Amino acid sequence: MAGEPVQRRLQFVLQHFDKRPTENVILNYFGLANEVYTITTAEGKFVVKNCFKNNTKELVANEAALIQALNDQGVPCPKLVPTKKGEPFLDYDGQYYLMSEFMQGYTPTWEESLTEQLASETMRAMADFHKATEQFEPPYDSGRLNALDLPGINQWLAQLKLELDADSSGRLSVQKMRILTQKLSALSESIAEELAHTDLTPLRQVYIHGDLHCFNLIFSEDKQQYKGIVDFDFIRKDYRLVDFFWASRSILWSYFFPKMLGYKPRRSDQEPTREQSTALVAETLSFMIHHYRQHHDLPDAEIKLLPLFAKALPLFTVRFFKLTNSEDECLDHAEWFSYQLENLDETVADIESALALCL
To answer: Euclidean distance between the first and final Cα of the chain, in Å?
Structure first.
């Protein structure tokens, strides 16, 4: 398998789905999460995804079941195409492939600024998703940790520390990560102390998307409404505020920064003042809460706990780090984790101030 040419492997995969290309196959994306192709046939266009994150039978079965459940409940996402044997996904030589119908539409890029309509539709998509997945039961336990599972997170960190200590390569990324894991362990201890004195009963768990933002939505060509949700690589049972906080970053950076300050963060030498930063977060959260509540309930008692998920985010994102990745990727991740930790206190303070203003 390792030495098999990509085009030959893809040919075999398409045979299992009984699809024959009539034009050149297009590689849309290749990264740590997936390998994605668009296939044009006499029957229409289709998308084939080689799953790198949901890379076990159990995980890809959960993804397929969720996509079916969402469509059954009227939450649009590209419909799956079964194999010739009627299976929802293909297990080909230890790799897992999903084929879906091609969904025409518009998806913004990170370089673009959002419109108010796209931002509000993002919140409608999130609310729709959470309503649809409140009762969803996946066929398998994914084994993925939720945001506040500190014992599981500590165990993962301990294993990473062992790997880092055993590494004698001298890689700069390893040196940086040894320092960062100490800081992350201290963060975990701090959150544990806070949880011991926090009432978590207002929090609601659903089957979350895990990466739900405007860049994983397909909008209508006129950019007025969302038509589909895509990219289910991080689905799991977790608190819905994980999705909420994650989406707040993209709405903040891609809508409110350009709207209020005229530039995007880290795309300019300009930096907002503390007052501006607090105002930006207040506008963002007020907007998100308002538009989410137009489609689904979100009690004040629950959203007030949002700062917890800002604090817990670095304990999730660190799990992207793998020593088997290239040194460039490892250094990029280490820089990302450092940025999150260095700005964490200000991030949390801004959220707390914003919630005090908008609730």
So the answer is: 56
Q: What is the CA radius of gyration of the chain?
A: 21
Distance CA(25)–CA(8), nearest Å, equals 12
Mean pLDDT of the chain: 94
Query: Tokens representing 193?
Result: 């102390």
Fold observed for domain 116-358:
Aminoglycoside 3'-phosphotransferase; Chain: A, domain 2 (3.90.1200)
What is the distance between the alpha carbons of residues 240 and 258, in angstroms, rounded to a whole number?
27
DSSP 8-state code for residue 216: G
The answer to whether 288 and 308 have CB atoms below 8 angstroms apart is no
Average pLDDT on 44-66 reads: 95
Q: Which residues are bridge partners to 177 per DSSP?
A: none
Sequence ranges of the domains in the chain = 6-101, 116-358
Closest listed residue to residue 212, CA positions, set 292, 139, 104, 141: 292
Identity of residue 10: L
Residue 191: is its pLDDT beyond 50?
A: yes
Q: How far apart are CA 121 and CA 292, in angstroms?
A: 9
| Residue 67: pLDDT over 70 | yes
In the three-class reduction of DSSP (H, G, I as helix; E, B as strand; rest coil), residue 29 is classed as strand
Q: Where are the beta strands (DSSP E) in 160-291?
A: 205-208, 217-219, 226-229, 236-239
Cβ–Cβ < 8 Å for 262, 251: no
What is the fold, at CATH topology level, of the domain defined by 6-101?
Phosphorylase Kinase; domain 1 (3.30.200)
């998307």: which residue's tokens? 209
Report the alpha-carbon distance of residue 21 to residue 40 in Å, rounded. 5
**Average of pLDDT values for 311-320?**
96
Return the C-alpha torsion angle 144, 148, 150, 155, nearest 10.
20
Taking only the tens place, the pLDDT of each residue in 110-128 is 889 999 999 999 999 999 9
**Using one digit for the tens of pLDDT, what is the confidence trace for 226-269?**
999 999 999 999 999 999 999 999 999 999 999 999 998 865 57
User: Tokens in use for 67?
Assistant: 């996509």
pLDDT of residue 9: 87
Here the tokens at position 323 are: 């020593």
Residue 278, token pair as written in the block? 């607090």
Q: How far is the C-alpha of 287 from the C-alpha of 301, rounded, in Å?
A: 18
